[in-house]
Amino acid sequence: MSPILEVEHLSATIAGQPVIEDITFTVPATGVTAVLGRNGVGKTSTMKAVMGLIARSGKVVFDGVRIDREDTHRIVRRGIGYVPEDREVFGSLTVAENLRLAERDARPRRDLVEQLFPDLVRRGGQRAGTLSGGQQQMLSLARALLNDNRLLLVDEPTKGLAPKIVTEVAEALEEAARTVPVLLVEQNLPVIERLAADVVVIDSGRVVHTGQAGALLTDAEAVHRLLGVHADTADTVAADAVAAATAPEGAK
Ligand SMILES: Nc1ncnc2c1ncn2[C@@H]1O[C@H](COP(=O)(O)OP(=O)(O)OP(=O)(O)O)[C@@H](O)[C@H]1O
Ligand SMILES: [Mg+2]
What is the pTM of this model? Predict the structure, then answer.
């Protein structure tokens, strides 16, 4: 199967300063591909460059079509959903209003959203600003899933969430990824281990590693060298997350 997204020699600048340089990777048409890297290395900039939100050069091919010269609205219409780092929901509007405003297509996929996020349906009348961080993240994901996107870019959905909520968001993403391929920026190694087949590691604006997620995460030396995380820490965190994810409800 051809990749859904091909990024070749992509460079981008913010306020004239280079933020990524010569980024090359592909995203398979199914499953989750994770983008990893330390803070400030250019993960968000990579997503923004793909979406045409910052000045970029290089080649981006989405489902066989070059999109690197296109405006963001055109890219969105082609079917790339973007869930930004800071979960842009309208705080003063209700959950139901947030969802309605996101509907782009003639036939929004309300059934899918209701099936994946029953809690949001129950909270339809609640102002989004009063939701917890995890619930806002779910709403943000739901807004992207309402439309018939052929790729989702999701930036650090678990950032700042409590461990139990991280597991819930990971579960929602796992379900979502059965319907649409996902390019996921994520720093939480257990979440990557659970969701991602492939990884792209960025450092100082450049790709320093691509490969299978499992192969990277079981290589303690590589994890330490590429991500600055001690693998034993990663293993401990991974074991904790697996325990939390598999423990009966009362034990969490
Ligand atoms: N609005 C901005 N103005 C100037 N520089 C910026 C801006 N946004 C990002 N940068 C710079 O671009 C580089 C890459 O930032 P980016 O946000 O892409 O990194 P990141 O990997 O997503 O980081 P994080 O892990 O903190 O989310 C950083 O050096 C950052 O300081
Ligand atoms: Mg970022």
Answer: 0.90
